[in-house]
Design brief:
This protein is an alpha+beta fold. Helices cover 16% and strands 38% of the residues.
Length: 155
Amino acid sequence: FFQAEDGIRDVAVTGVQTCALPIYKHKAKSAKEKREGIMVYWGGCPYEFKRSKHLLKYKNWITEEFEIVEIQEGSGDWAGHAKRVIFKLPKPVINSKGELQETSAAGVEGDMERAKKWFENRDKLVGKLGSITFGEYSKYGIPLTPVLETVRDYE
């Protein structure tokens, strides 16, 4: 639970706040300020100067739709399955190498059954919109840590 001054205290049980409302309030504020997210401490756990099981990252993920340009096959156990998707950026950008970039790549979310279906139907899916979730845009306008969640092939 988030420990903040604007929550509800349940001193009899834990001695710390147990209301989730402040989490959403602070996360919404961080999203409005275009920050990466918030850190949430569990209960009254002390701060540790290392990775801690008592500290959670709660990130502000962005989901937008992009045109699918190509669906690429995985390797090893993922052979015959979609593992990576090339998608068209909303507008061409100049990347960190000073080159014009019109597409980017995303991983594929989901199980092997769905990934196999997408790979087998890849020719039908090219040109359709895919919902891609990512952390933020880079300073060059490229989505960072993108993952294809769904394909709009139901319309």
